[in-house]
Amino acid sequence: MSTPVSADDPLSKERSHLTASRSALRAMREDVQALDIKDVTANWVNAEVLTRQIEERIKALADLSDTPLFFGRLDYLHAPGADQAEGAGGERFYIGRRHVHDGDGDPMVIDWRAPVSQPFYRASKKDPMDVGLRRRFGYTGGDLTAYEDEHLSDPAEAARTSKLLQQEIERPRVGPMRDIVATIQPEQDEIVRSGLQGSVCVQGGPGTGKTAVGLHRVAYLLYAHRERLARTGTLVIGPNRSFLRYIEQVLPALGELAVRQATVDDLVAHVEVRGTDDADAAVVKGDARMAEVLRRAVYAHVTPPAEPVVVVRGARRWRVPAYELEDIVRELLDRDIRYGAAREALPQRIAHAVLVQMERAGEAPDDRVQDQVARNSAVKAAVKAIWPAVDPAKLVLRLLSEPEFLAEHAAGVLTEDEQKTILWTKPARSVKSAKWSAADAVLIDEATDVVERTHSLGHVVLDEAQDLSPMQYRAVGRRCTTGSATVLGDLAQGTTPWATRSWEEALGHLGKPEAVVEELTAGFRVPTDVITYASRLLPHIAPGLTPVASVRENPGFFELRDVSEVGQVVDACRELLGREGSIGLIAADARIPVLAEALEAAGISFLDPGQETTAETRLTLVPASLAKGLEYDYVVLDEPRAVVDGEPDERTGLRRLYVALTRAVSGLVVVHGGELPEQIR
């Protein structure tokens, strides 16, 4: 409820607290800027590290003028942690994006991630969690303009839907993806605050906030486990660069700056990708069975020793017979360690066998002697012959170029037809000249891990996970073998020929079979009329999924228009530009050049996906293949049949259409000259 301003009005007092809090934040920033590190650093290295930390702290304390510093207030009946039987007085906390304290160190704003803030998201009339009053604030830009109260412990007050919460959910989108910190729902908060040790998979339909939940989970984990994750690192993986540009401002808005973002292709960039696979080849290359083919091919380089190793030291000759070498090799193979680690251990094992003979002969060799023997030319030659170095890219080149080599290592794993499918018709002469595909790069990454263990991070967030192949899941899983993962996706939006069939299967490939699968079904982004229409596709693309139920009070608008020319598509865009917010014109990839030309002829400027909308340019022209994960206030969807026909099979095409239909926040206009797919007529 909005309230007129007076000297003793609550809104005036809240504005005063906002002003004081901003001043306190500014003082905190100035204190950091004034730090003199000359007397606390022993050398230039320490000075550089401390300077960088101070710079990051200054950035984290920036006051974003158009972003609310706090968005809620909790008045506890009793002081948190106090014995309620003693009748201890309550406390008041303002909940915001970061902690702010005054000159005496007393908190003026509490970080939303702190335990004391949790009831702001979870308290209810049924379980008030000792909260007497929950107050939500409404803002216009950075100005506090309204408030709304819930007396959770008052049995006389009925539970009701928050109007300010609805307004915040439905606020027009202009610019990058917004954080949801002010609107997190109880089921979302439970996922956000789940522990670092466990992995979680979030199945969420369009507009359920799964991406935002994943990003806020990163922010929460960095707050709760700062030191550990500072050592081990965090990573957010998105489907493409456009998507990463779209979400990249969420974490900085929450005060987190040190989270790396990448695509799966970035992770496996061992070679330059210049080629493409047809769907059949990509499916086979992405199959988890390829891991066994690669493992066999790597370890096939190990050759049983046929000759003894003779080490000459001074006047003495020490002989390690072939059968003893064979025992050493068999032991290393049985230990199931990385190929490269075993290769490094082999000369030391041979040297140890020599040292045993030396000790039997009465000598007293030490570790330095063992290292010298391990570097002996005879030992080096034996290691090169028995356990040669393997170049992963060259290995994959051979598998894809030489039918005999592939057949030898794929026997009983891939059928003859599958082997023919992935063999290159024109074998490349070298790693550099090869036209590697994205799937090939993943194979090289797998082979690289067989040779040498991949570095593991503390936590990985994988978004739009439903589109990954089993081999891509393995590539991601290698980056968090000793850490945890947050997997985000929607099985109904899988638009690759190898799309995930079940989360249990996907989590197995990721190496996280114990991960908890949570399903979000409350839709906060897509209006009721739009999601109801799009959900007609679910029985055909993902029959086991629960349809999203929109919680939006505003039903939005939805319209089907039969058009006869491209100019009418432009007219629909111009009409929507008369409204507030962002506009997306989504079309089959093949239709993009025609539509771009029509927009330019009409004098309507437009952006590419991932570019930030401005007050001057609010229309984005979006190929259907890049629409996933993006959202616009209003969407014009051009020719649904062309979207479906642009994919290799109907099911994938219908899933692509489902994605395109569910990008709208306030309204959707579907324009078509041809016949609509029968599933949505």
TrEMBL record:
SUPFAM superfamilies: P-loop containing nucleoside triphosphate hydrolases
Gene Ontology MF: a single term: DNA binding
Alphabetical UniProt keywords: ATP-binding, Helicase, Hydrolase, Nucleotide-binding
Protein residues bound to ATP: 204-211
A GO term from the CC aspect: cytosol
Highest taxon of the lineage: Bacteria
UniProt KW Zinc-finger keyword: no
Sequence ranges assigned to domain UvrD-like helicase ATP-binding in this UniProt record: 183-536
Any one Gene Ontology BP term: recombinational repair
Name this protein carries in UniProt: AAA family ATPase
Species assigned in the record: Streptomyces roseirectus
